[in-house]
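Hi support team,

I've been running sequence recovery on a batch of backbones for a student project. Most finish fine, but this one hangs at about 90% for roughly twenty minutes before it completes. I'm not sure whether the input is malformed or the queue is just slow. I've pasted the structure tokens below so you can try to reproduce it. Let me know if you need the job ID as well.

Thanks,
M.K.
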């Protein structure tokens, strides 16, 4: 069963999406949030598999909420859902760890399939964003390579093991450190690299450390 959280400031949209999704036998809506801050709280309580995140909401928007959720709960897949074709916000949400982006006029069947894909870790974004994302990733790669030079020797040791797919426990055992110390190194490394999603960090580190 795929657990879904819906975050949107419009009650009609939240309820409509809930009704559509719960017609599917493999999907259940575990929570409804009216803003990004509420979505962050519910993610901690309900641990959904997928969060449908509106970009423009009061108190905390979807871009900021995506960053907060991915930092605290990296296993939750965030799908950005918006009525606005706002390239800047969409690219920032993807940078913050969102696994995909959809406009709200999407057909129900495609939305449902995208949620299933997101639960399996598959990325989704329209072809029209490909060029913008490519340029952004090139710029990000340059900044990332510079940030790597700021890592301490121990952080680089941790980075190499994280890039190899090791868990914090495995890293601790390999480096003869406590798991708490490893978590501190990982947090410091994330802050310096500007990445808060473990999978994204591992992939980026693997590409850069292999050069």
């Amino acid at each position: 069963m795929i657990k879904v959280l819906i975050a949107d400031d419009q009650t009609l949209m939240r309820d409509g999406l809930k009704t559509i999704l719960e017609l599917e036998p493999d999907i259940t809506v575990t929570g409804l949030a009216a803003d990004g801050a509420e979505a962050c709280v519910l993610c901690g309580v309900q641990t959904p598999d997928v969060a449908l995140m509106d970009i423009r909401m009061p108190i905390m928007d979807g871009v900021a909420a995506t960053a907060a959720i991915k930092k605290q709960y990296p296993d939750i897949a965030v799908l950005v859902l918006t009525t606005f074709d706002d390239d800047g916000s969409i690219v920032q949400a993807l940078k913050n760890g969102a696994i995909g982006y959809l406009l709200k006029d999407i057909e129900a069947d495609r939305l449902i399939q995208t949620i299933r894909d997101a639960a399996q870790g598959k990325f989704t974004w329209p072809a029209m964003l490909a060029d913008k994302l490519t340029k952004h990733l090139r710029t990000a790669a340059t900044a990332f390579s510079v940030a790597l030079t700021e890592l301490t020797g121990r952080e680089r040791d941790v980075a190499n093991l994280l890039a190899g797919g090791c868990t914090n426990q495995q890293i601790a055992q390999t480096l003869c450190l406590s798991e708490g110390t490893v978590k501190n190194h990982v947090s410091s490394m994330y802050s310096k690299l500007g990445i808060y999603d473990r999978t994204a960090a591992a992939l980026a580190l693997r590409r850069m450390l292999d050069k």
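--
Follow-up from support: It reproduced on our side and the slowdown came from queue contention, not your input. Strands lie at 2-7, 27-33, 50-54, 77-82, 100-103. No action needed from you.
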